[in-house]
Specification:
Number of helices of chain A: 2
Strand order of the largest sheet of chain B: 4-3-8
Distance between the termini of chain A: 173 Å
Largest sheet of chain B: 3 strands, antiparallel
Structural class of chain B: mainly alpha
Largest interface: A-B, 34 and 50 residues
Largest sheet of chain A: none
Oligomer: heterodimer
Order of helices and strands of chain B: HHEEEEEEEEHHHHHHH
Radius of gyration of chain B: 25 Å
Strand content of chain B: 5-15%
Strand content of chain A: under 5%
Number of helices of chain B: 9
Helix content of chain B: 55-70%
Distance between the termini of chain B: 71 Å
Number of strands of chain B: 8
């Protein structure tokens, strides 16, 4: 039964062949292959981690951008509100100032009117005096000398008239 | 449509083969009885010279290296395969050393010399080793050339196997020891797988029943045995010689140590027998199925033999497909068991609370 009794020659050559095969592969092939496969697995793991991180960052960035936009909207609304407030205030102020100015103008006008009235009163008085004197002169041409005591008297009468008015 | 076509073609081929066997068998019938046992052992066994297909008597000569009682002799096998005697050597036929080279010493006695011949099996081992080297270096060269890119086509398939054996089997079992023993285990896996598959290919570079030969599996099992026991830790030896069992089991009569020591040897022997029996069994079933054609022909005539051909071929095809599966499984089983046995010899002391 040849099959069940190992041949020495075959055992010998099998051992030689296997030993050669082992030393060649163990020295030049397997460590390199295992190292390369491990490196590639690491690279893929890293790539996946990197992609996840990048995605997270992207999501983050989006959220941040949304936040900035919301803030900008808020600021815009605030600015608009402030502007409208300012506008109203300016209008109010302008109205007030205009009123004051108008008051001043009307006061000045009143003063000048008063002055003009006084002036015209004075003038009127003089003219009335003069006219009265002329009239009196014509009336009394001879009797009444044109002295100052007479004039004073007329003036006095006129004042009386005026106060009676 | 294509399925139907290929089914028809397959049927035609099977019918033609059946016809061919029928003719051959009816021709063979006259020349003598079929001796199944002889044919089976011839096909499963070793040979000087490598038979080429379809020509039983034409063999590729291989070197014969023998050391007789008068020193070394080295000649090509075609000097003796025809039954001749060369330099006092001839191939024994039907004697005590059937099929082996013997030296005829004085008095016509036949003595078996020290035989280092490159027989068919040895040559096939070399071819298998070469194929393994080519396969493994094709992966390595891919990484050398393409760096981090994933391999394509055949290399990708080989890488898949390496990945499966190393990352899913060796590393989970061995842990930090894995890189140290991975080269041996991966080499064993690829070598066994190649030898298994080459054995299934019947024509020239294959056709040698390597892993179905006890010598081959014995060498592999012995190497595993030595690795287990030479790299074993103190704890491993303690568990064998003074295991943690009740004193009665080890003190007056060393029963447990005896069982443990027996276990040391049964492990590699189981490895050796498992691979050998699986592969040889597969080959033998196919051979028997083929021989049934000739046996039935000689028993019941050519027509029965022709009919048997179809069934035999169908079953043989099924068996060969099964053997392809078994080739992978057995290579894997040998590797995983070696891994487990080696890692079991690297036990660290248990911590008892």
């Amino acid at each position: 039964m040849e099959l069940f009794t190992p041949e020495f020659g075959l055992v010998f050559w099998m051992f030689i062949a296997f030993a050669c095969l082992y030393f060649i592969l163990a020295k030049y092939a397997w460590p390199y292959i295992i190292k390369s496969m491990e490196e590639r697995a690491d690279l893929i793991d890293k790539g996946v981690a990197y992609a996840q991180e990048a995605k997270a960052q992207l999501d983050n960035a989006k959220a941040e951008a949304d936040k900035v936009i919301a803030e900008a909207h808020q600021q815009q609304a605030e600015i608009l509100r402030e502007a409208s407030k300012l506008k109203n205030q300016i209008i109010e102020d302008a109205k007030g100032e205009a009123a004051i100015e108008a008051k001043k103008v009307s006061q000045a006008a009143q003063v000048s009117i008063e002055q003009a009235r006084k002036e015209s009163e004075k003038q009127l008085r003089q003219e009335v005096g003069e006219i009265a004197l002329q009239i009196a002169e014509k009336v009394l041409r001879k009797n009444v000398s044109n002295d100052s005591a007479q004039r004073e008297l007329v003036d006095q009468y006129l004042s009386e008239v005026e106060t009676n008015n | 449509m294509r399925k139907v076509l290929s089914a028809i073609i397959a049927l035609v081929i099977v019918a033609l083969m059946a016809f061919g066997y029928y003719r051959a068998a009816s021709h063979h019938h006259g020349s003598g009885e079929v001796n199944p046992k002889e044919i089976i052992y011839e096909h499963l066994g070793d040979a000087y010279g490598w038979e080429i297909p379809f020509a039983h008597d034409v063999r590729i000569p291989l070197p014969v290296i023998v050391k007789g009682n008068d020193g070394w002799h080295c000649f090509m096998s075609n000097k003796v395969t025809g039954g001749e005697t060369y330099e006092g050597f001839k191939i024994d036929h039907g004697g005590e050393h059937n099929g082996k080279i013997v030296q005829i010493v004085d008095g016509g006695k036949e003595v078996r010399p020290l035989d280092f011949s490159i027989t068919k099996n040895v040559a096939a081992i070399f071819v298998a080793a070469l194929i393994v080297i080519l396969m493994v270096f094709s992966i390595r060269n891919w990484y050398k050339k393409h760096g981090m890119k994933a391999p394509r086509k055949g290399t990708a398939f080989l890488e898949l196997i390496v990945d499966y054996v190393y990352y899913d089997t060796i590393r989970p079992i061995m842990g930090k020891d894995a890189p140290k023993y991975a080269p041996y285990l991966l080499t064993v896996f690829f070598f066994i797988l190649t030898m298994n598959l080459m054995g299934l290919i019947v024509i020239f570079p294959g056709g040698a029943n390597l892993t179905g030969n006890l010598a081959v599996t014995m060498v592999l099992a012995l190497i595993t045995f030595f690795i287990i026991n030479l790299t074993g830790t103190k704890e491993y030896w303690k568990e064998i010689l003074w295991p943690d069992v009740p004193m009665a089991l080890k003190c007056p009569v060393p029963m447990m140590p005896f069982i443990e020591i027996l276990g040391m040897f049964t492990k590699p022997i189981a490895l050796m027998i498992r691979l050998f029996a699986n592969m040889m069994g597969g080959h033998m079933v196919v051979l028997v199925l083929m021989l049934l054609i000739f046996i039935f022909t000689s028993m019941f005539g050519a027509i029965v033999g022709g009919a048997t051909t179809v069934f035999s071929l169908a079953f043989a095809l099924f068996m060969l497909a099964l053997d392809t599966l078994v080739s992978f499984i057995q290579a894997y089983v040998f590797t995983i068991l070696s891994t487990i046995f080696i890692s079991m010899s690297h036990v660290e002391p248990h911590h008892h609370e």
